[in-house]
Amino acid sequence: MRPRAAGAAALAAVLTLGACGTTFVDETIATIDTSPDATTTTVARVAEDAPLDELLIDIETLMFDLDQVIIDDDLQALEVYARIDELWTVAEPQIRSNDPDDVFNFEQAIGLARTGAERRRPADASKGYKIMTDVIDAYLGRV
After folding, report:
1. CB 46 within 8 A of CB 93
2. In which band, very low, low, confident or very high, does the pLDDT at 106 lie, cut at 50, 70 and 90?
3. d(CA 8, CA 72)
4. How many angstroms separate the first and last alpha carbons of the chain?
5. How far is 38 from 97, CA to CA, in rounded Å?
6. 23 is a domain residue
7. Residue 96 vs residues 1, 78, 89: alpha-carbon distances, Å
8. R_g of the chain, CA atoms, integer Å
9. Is residue 91 part of a domain?
């Protein structure tokens, strides 16, 4: 065998065998309670005729600590955002029909909440909350 071919074979063997290793899975990190005593919480659907001010307050309340929820529990953060999105789905047409120019400001805050929850970025959720409080205060102050 030529020295070059032997060197290439040795390098291939080192790289191939070096990829083998022990995989450690910490099962305490991601466990799901599947016991018969496990409980689930179901949140009521958002009524299509819900008053806009109540929808906005509910959105603001959910966004208040979304940043901390993102830090503590990714899955719960996605659930909180899903509820925010349900509320926004009902609120958005009401805002659009009365004040279409205001929709962008609300969507900006909602988008930051979504980015925060989906990409695990608590700072985005926090910024979204700050924007949302300002937008809600300005909107409800005029209406």
Report:
1. no
2. very high
3. 49
4. 86
5. 43
6. no
7. 77, 26, 11
8. 25
9. yes
Residue 109: phi, psi to the nearest 5?
Answer: -65, -45
Return the C-alpha torsion angle 69, 72, 73, 74, nearest 10.
Answer: 80
Q: Please give the model's pTM, rounded to 2 decimal places.
A: 0.69
Question: Residue 9 CB: number of other CB atoms within 10 A?
Answer: 11
Q: Report the number of distinct structural domains present in the chain.
A: 1
By three-state DSSP, how is residue 47 classified? coil
Q: Domain of 97? A: 45-142
14-64 pLDDT, tens per residue? Answer: 555 555 555 555 555 545 555 556 555 666 888 888 999 999 999 999 999
Q: Answer whether residue 64 is part of any domain.
A: yes
Asked if residues 124 and 77 have their Cβ atoms less than 8 Å apart, the reply is no
CB-CB contact of 109 with 63 (8 Å): yes
pLDDT digits (tens, 9 = 90+) for 64-104: 999 999 999 889 999 999 999 999 999 999 999 999 999 99
In this structure, is residue 58 part of a structural domain?
yes
d(CA 47, CA 30): 34
